[in-house]
Specification:
The complex is a heterodimer of chains A (about 210) and B (about 250). Chain A is built from 6 helices and 14 strands. Chain A has about 210 residues and is α/β, with parallel strands linked by helices. Chain A has one domain: Class I glutamine amidotransferase (GATase) domain (Rossmann fold, 3-Layer(aba) Sandwich). In chain A, strands 2-1-3-4-14-13-12-9 form an 8-stranded mixed beta sheet. In chain A, strand 13 and strand 14 form a beta hairpin. The longest helix of chain A has 18 residues. Chain B has one domain: Alpha-Beta Barrel (TIM Barrel). Helices cover about 35% and strands about 30% of the residues of chain B. Chain B has 10 helices and 12 strands. Chain B has an 8-stranded parallel β-barrel, surrounded by 6 helices. In chain B, helix 8 crosses helix 10. Chain B is globular, with a radius of gyration of 16 Å. Chain B starts with a strand and ends in a 7-residue tail after the last helix. The model of chain B has no long low-confidence stretch (mean pLDDT about 95). The chains are: A alpha/beta (about 210), B alpha/beta (about 250).
Chain lengths: ~210, ~250
């Protein structure tokens, strides 16, 4: 079984590689090659930093179409942090930047009250919504468990029914993870969230195994 | 309730963890990777490795320590000490660090911070402010607390925020290694001034010191060293004491 972590020059891919490598029977590959991505059994899109630069790096490698084709195959996909935000149609970071558009909705600056600090750098809890967690990346994760967040922008999906969890900060409840078919994405960093985060990685691996 | 991060601060000289008092008289007290692994398993929220001699010697050992740590600890890792160039940051991040802490080079050239924040994102850049008290104000120091800057530490933190750092780690030189509590006035003044997360460092001798700091300031994280290096209290006891005093913490 092969999981490819898209390595497009943005962020800490090594940590995701290390976290996945803890589990048996998984070949983890860091790559930006079209062939590797299309032949992956599971795909992870990581990313930290600026939306605009990330989109530029993806386009430079001709990856937006490749990621789209991968997803159309129906195989499991996981976006992490900026890798979640990029899935949306647009971000208001630096005015307006077009995203990959796989998920309807946009990415906005944190509308929390002015007294709260940004970036939101903290362990914070994720809360169940209507979607059932069993069989998802949150199988056996307890409601309100803590994960590590670091971001200033939040995702606002048009379709509320894809929201897998919400998290509270700055007086608002924002969407901290989604599931739309074979696409999973989380705003927090599972690879940096100790045992709970490793469990999420393990769940993703299990979903990939089931799909084989 | 926002959760206070409890961070293990591991100062390094070559391949050893060192600890002194007031950032002086550094003694070897252990191996960085053994300690970071133990703290991770004990429930620490984050790890900061600081090269205490800031590149006076070979820096490869620091990168090796970092690489090892990212294989066995799945929490955020910051490295600092002697970061001078964009390449230094790139090397640290690609070896698995999530953030770099920068002090001296920011004082020498604030544009370096602007450039770094733009390139890697604010979340990857921690402004390290090392402060010494002069009556009712504090002065920022550089070169591991050896040299004065004649800058007011609080004003300087605000400049770093404006230049684009995502967090401030403030270390009290006066309180470091003394285990008699944080400089609450310093942390309080700083958190009132900046609107980004603040990590307080220097002086934690017990969980009660942390509780006192959290009750009296708006800090977001505490860095502990002697408290855990010398097994004064273990991490789960520190956190459960915080929790029973109504301080948000990850358990």
């Amino acid at each position: 079984m092969k999981i490819v972590v898209v390595d497009y020059g943005i962020g800490n891919v090594q940590s995701i590689f290390n976290a996945l490598s803890k589990f048996k029977d998984v070949d983890v590959i860091l790559s930006d090659s079209q062939d590797e991505i299309m032949s992956a059994d599971g795909l992870i899109l990581p990313g930290v930093g600026a939306f605009k630069r990330a989109m530029k790096e993806l386009k430079r490698r001709n990856l937006p179409n490749v990621l789209g084709s991968y997803i159309l195959q129906g195989k499991p996909f996981l976006g992490i942090c900026l890798g979640m935000q990029l899935l949306f149609e647009s971000s208001e970071e630096f005015g307006y930047t077009e995203g990959l558009g796989f998920i309807k909705g946009g990415v906005e600056y944190f509308p929390g009250d002015v007294n709260d600090k940004l970036p939101h750098v903290s362990w914070n809890s994720i809360e169940k919504q209507e979607l059932n967690w069993s069989g998802t990346i949150f199988s056996d994760i307890k409601n309100k468990d803590d994960f590590y967040f670091v971001h200033s922008y939040i995702c606002k999906p048009k379709d509320q029914s894809i929201i897998l969890s919400k998290t509270q900060y700055g007086g608002i409840d924002f969407c901290s993870s989604i599931r739309q078919g074979n696409i999973y994405a989380c705003q927090f960093h599972p690879e940096k969230s100790a045992n709970s985060g490793l469990k999420v990685m393990k769940n993703f691996i299990d979903i990939v195994k089931d799909g084989e | 309730m926002n959760k206070i991060r409890v961070i293990a601060r591991i100062d390094i000289n070559n391949e050893y963890t060192v600890k002194g008092r007031c950032l002086e008289g550094l003694k070897k007290i252990g191996r960085p990777n053994e300690m970071s692994k133990k703290y991770y398993e004990g429930g620490i929220d984050e790890i900061v490795f600081l090269d205490a001699v800031a590149s006076l010697y070979d820096r490869n050992s620091l990168i090796e320590i970092l690489k090892q740590a990212t294989k066995e600890t799945f929490i955020p890792i910051t490295i600092g000490g002697g970061i001078k160039t964009i390449k230094d940051i790139k090397d640290a991040l690609s070896a698995g660090a999530d953030k770099v802490a920068i002090n001296t080079q920011a004082v020498k050239n604030l544009d370096f911070i602007r450039e770094a924040a733009e390139m890697f994102g604010s979340q990857a850049i921690v402004g390290s402010v090392v402060a010494r008290r002069h009556r009712y104000r504090w002065e920022a120091f550089i070169d591991n607390a050896k040299h004065r800057t004649h800058k007011d530490a609080i004003d300087w933190a605000a400049e770093l925020e404006k230049a684009g750092v995502g967090e401030i780690m403030v270390t009290s030189i006066d309180n470091d290694g003394r285990q008699k509590g944080f400089d609450i006035d310093l942390v309080g003044a700083l958190t009132k001034r900046v609107n980004i997360p603040v990590i307080a460092s220097g002086g934690a001798g017990s969980s009660n010191d942390i509780i006192k700091l959290c009750k009296n300031t708006n800090c977001d994280a505490v860095a502990v060293a002697s408290l855990i290096h010398y097994d004064v209290e273990n991490i789960s006891d520190i956190k459960s004491n915080m929790k029973s005093n109504n301080i948000g913490v990850r358990l």
